[in-house]
Write a structure and sequence with these properties.
Helix content is 20%, strand content 24%. The chain contains 8 helices and 17 strands. The two termini are 22 Å apart. Bound molecules: flavin-adenine dinucleotide. Flavin-adenine dinucleotide binds next to helix 1, helix 6 and helix 8.
Length: 446
């Protein structure tokens, strides 16, 4: 590692990797740290060991889907990549509209090799019958057609592995170094730097900042945690799946199912989207046991997955749990979760909408199976623990710069004021590139 890095980027998931790459393109010396290893190509990241990386939950349940490996949760992702519509920015109180992100959306789409699919006649017929706005899946693809992952980028190959950052060393409102724990040598490491970009994902970024004692300008860090409400079903149908259809030609997104353009009589703000994927062989989802024995080949499965928009509220936030320490000796995060009546009302509509879509899709003899209910929570899309806003107390500026430490930027979903009504990563990446540009400009890159 250089004696003093221009920028230390914490977290080598999609956001950290694209940020580090952008900063290097600006001629800056970047050190990219990750808590986990860089696994060989095609190796799926193992589940995070909760004995090593614990967390506690207070209130309603929360599944924190995480990955501790270079590439982050792109090890698991479905690569759905759709821009947020303008009304997400407006009703969520974002400090800018969608147009402000257009240039960075385009740059992020180019980076992830965005490909748009084609609506299958089956989905098209349902969209027409139910008068729904349905678009084909837009997915992130590598040149050979596989799902895009950041771990193949040159910058990811240079990431420093097994080095979880534990806190920031700072004085007079500026960071001087990142303190990390070397998991292999079991000792702390201090990485001096001129600036820091945090991209460890929202709960972890909040934990790191809470452990760094930011003072009054950091008092809202950890507040405003949001995720998507999820209702997930599988429609099993007694008909074989077509052979060889790729997911871009067998998937669709029902956009903003309700509350489109805010014209609504529903008792909640915001809206939800539903992803449709299939039909695929039941074996592709490990559902052989759900169909009559010996008939697996004659059945197919279509997934219906609704994602509902969440807004911040006082009962959902992240703090430190001093009674629980992780492998680095740091206090683990405590996730406080409570769902509001507004969100519960939306959850009911999400379930009904999935049932309605399933009825329209199903052939006689089909059955609908529930996978996940709203309120059991955690889509792996958490956001908002360090939200951006035009002024304090929002912890970050609209460019993702931390108000409490003027040479620190946040490039993951922590800065998003709301979850949005669909998959978040494309928006996270657009905002990460925007934060990287602001960081590069201010600390003197090209
Ligand atoms: C099953 C599943 C399916 C998904 N499908 C989609 C989809 O189809 N479309 C979509 O838009 N989104 C999807 N997502 C969400 C998507 O994966 C995330 O939005 C995206 O990975 C966020 O990128 P990130 O870089 O901000 O964070 P992450 O991917 O979480 O990466 C964080 C990185 O930081 C590292 N790290 C953590 N703590 C530290 C520390 N203290 N110090 C150093 N490094 C640290 C981790 O090892 C990791 O590499 C899915 C998520 C899941 C769980």
């Amino acid at each position: 590692m250089p004696d003093v890095a221009d920028v230390v980027v914490v977290g080598a998931g999609p956001a950290g990797c694209l940020t580090a790459q952008r900063l290097e393109e600006r001629g800056l010396a970047v050190t990219l740290l990750d808590a986990g290893p860089r696994l060989p190509a095609k190796t799926r990241a193992p589940e995070v060991d909760r004995r090593i990386w614990p967390f506690s939950v207070e209130g309603d349940g929360f599944d924190w889907y995480r990955v501790r490996a270079v590439g982050g949760r792109a090890h698991l992702w479905g690569s759905w990549s759709h821009r947020f519509p303008d009304n997400v920015f407006r009703r969520g109180g974002w400090p800018f509209g969608r147009r402000a992100l257009d240039r960075h959306y385009a740059a992020a789409e180019a980076q992830i090799g965005l490909k748009r699919g084609v609506l299958s006649p089956r989905f098209e017929a349902v969209a027409t019958a139910l008068e729904l706005t349905m678009v084909p899946k837009a997915g992130a693809r590598l040149r050979g057609g596989a799902v895009w992952t950041p771990r193949l980028l040159p910058v990811a190959r240079r990431a420093r592995q097994h080095l979880p950052a534990t806190r920031l060393e700072h004085s007079r409102g500026r960071v001087q170094a990142v303190v990390a724990w070397d998991l292999r040598r079991e000792r702390p490491v201090t990485v001096p730097c001129r600036a820091v970009v945090l991209a460890a994902s929202p709960i972890e970024t909040a934990r790191l900042l809470l452990a760094s004692a930011l003072g009054p300008l950091g008092r809202d860090v950890g507040h405003g945690l949001v995720d998507h409400m999820v209702a997930s079903y599988v429609l099993l149908e007694p008909t074989p799946a077509p052979r060889g259809a790729d997911d871009l030609h067998a998937s669709a997104l029902v956009e903003s199912f309700v509350n489109l353009d805010d014209q609504t009589a529903r008792p909640y703000r915001g809206g939800f989207s539903i992803e449709l994927a299939g039909p695929v062989p039941v074996s592709a989802l490990g559902l052989e046991r759900m169909v009559p024995g010996g008939e697996e080949e004659r059945w197919s499965a279509t997934q219906l997955h609704a994602l509902g928009e969440c807004f911040p509220h006082a009962g959902r936030f992240v703090t430190l749990d001093p009674s629980l320490t992780d492998v680095t000796g740091s206090a683990a995060p405590r996730i406080h979760v409570a769902w509001t009546p507004e969100e519960e009302a939306m959850a009911e509509d999400m379930k009904q909408a999935c049932a309605q879509l399933s009825d329209a899709l199903a052939i006689p003899g089909s059955k609908l199976i529930k996978f996940a209910d709203p309120q059991t929570a955690g889509a792996g899309h958490e956001a908002g623990t360090c939200a951006m806003g035009l002024e304090a107390p929002a912890p970050c500026t609209p460019q993702g710069r931390l108000r409490a430490l003027t040479n620190v930027w946040v490039a993951d979903a922590s800065t998003m004021p709301t979850s949005g009504d669909r998959h978040p990563t494309l928006t996270v990446l657009a905002q990460a590139l925007r934060a990287a540009d602001d960081c590069g400009r201010r600390i003197g890159g090209r």
